[in-house]
Amino acid sequence: MTAERPPVCSYEGSDYQASFWEQGGRGYEDAVEAVALRRLLPRSGRLLLELGAGAGRNTPRYAGYERVVLLDYSLTQLQQAAQRLGHSPRYVYVAADIYRLPFVAGRFDAATMIRTLHHMADAPLALRQVRRTLQPGAAFILEYASKHNLKAILRYWLRRQVWSPFSLEPVEFTPLNFDFHPRAVRQWLAECGFERQRQLTISHFRLGLFKRLLPLRLLVWLDSLAQLTGDWWQLTPSVFTLSRAAGETPVAAPGAFFQCPACGYANLEEQTDALYCPGCGRSWPIVDGIYDFRAA
Ligand SMILES: [Zn+2]
Questions:
Q1: Interval 128-169: pLDDT, tens
Q2: Which of 24, 53, 87, 220 lies 20 to 30 angstroms, CA to CA, from 206?
Q3: Ligand 1: distance of its center to the CA of 266 in Å?
Q4: 149: Cβ–Cβ under 8 A, 6 or more apart, which residues?
Q5: 120 CA distance to ligand 1 centroid (A)?
Q6: Residue 230 Cα, ligand 1 centroid: separation in angstroms?
Q7: Using one digit for the tens of pLDDT, what is the confidence trace for 23-32?
């Protein structure tokens, strides 16, 4: 396996959950995401991989799944998630790099990736990794930030923004924060082995003006109606997609779960505070019940 990896955006030590979500006036964004998830995610399943789980804001929405693996690059975000959700066989907490996912191929029957592609310098590489861990037919919900939104288009036409919202390349508006063109994301999904099924546009009313003038429940109701136009046009800052893992790829053997992200060896030995890899001799620490696969 190569050592060459794109840079990673880490929320280590961040109070993102409290400052952005709980005190940041994001009740509207959170509620419309819940509506989209309810519409797209199959009701039940066995094992769901939540990529970029953060502090577990969305995790309770996966109640129909027997087990959920919460994956994030930040150990402190996962510690917050574990505090909220607790340690039980139902949840597995994994700190890892999305470009080197520590799971055997064909393990999961569902995956979600919400507000996470946004931080990927190499989005297709991340999507290929996700596809590798999925069984054929698995559901994959991907949310991405769209550069092709009404506000960006107006600003571009009024010459208050230099980058074009119509070109296919991503725009990095602050370091490791990317907005993507919907057509580019659709191409990557197809190239990476996904068959797209549905799109919902989200956050039509993400403007301070709307949020001040209209009650939250009315805004959420209006957005949930407007979401349904997502297959026809995409002009919102956020888009949800449902895809299926396409093609005849392997299904993981029963019991196979982790694989070493450094050498690919699949039979890691669980010790008291680490997973030991006989393939390359590395030990991957287990910290507060969280598997940590980040070390080089
Ligand atoms: Zn190894």
A1: 999 999 999 999 999 999 999 988 999 999 999 999 999 999
A2: 53
A3: 8
A4: 165, 235, 236, 237
A5: 25
A6: 43
A7: 777 888 899 8
